[in-house]
Amino acid sequence: MEEQEDFAAQQAALGKVIGSSFELEHTEEYISRARLAAALADKVRYMMQYQLEELFSRLYRLDIFERKIKEVMAAGGDIAQKIADLIIDRQLEKNISKQENPPSTPEDEDLAW
Q1: pLDDT tens for residues 51-98?
Q2: 80-86, long-range: CB within 8 Å, 24+ apart, which pairs?
Q3: Looking at the domain assignment, is residue 83 inside a domain?
Q4: I want to staple 19 with a disulfide (CB 3.0 to 4.6 A). Which of 5, 24, 65, 87 is the partner?
């Protein structure tokens, strides 16, 4: 339940980043984490089969930890679904971190770039 609440609070930001990174359209229609994960898993599955280098490049740009990717691939099962979950989890972590640690503004405006 907590995961769904985190997802709901971050839905717009997640949809924007994940949608643009993986060319998913209408991400605002994914009203649940499960639906977004399923659509993303389909895209990951396709990329695993036809665009593996591009998939790894996008995972790197999204800051998905290589160690976690290796763990998922070694474990087997539905690897595409597990990678989709990694992507969503990492984006949630990044969004929460941004909220908890907003950029500071310099006290002296002359020091602001």
Answers
A1: 999 999 999 999 999 999 999 999 989 999 999 999 999 988 888 888
A2: 80/41, 80/42, 80/44, 80/45, 80/48, 81/37, 81/38, 81/41, 83/41, 83/44, 83/59, 84/37, 84/38, 84/40, 84/41, 84/44, 85/37
A3: yes
A4: 24
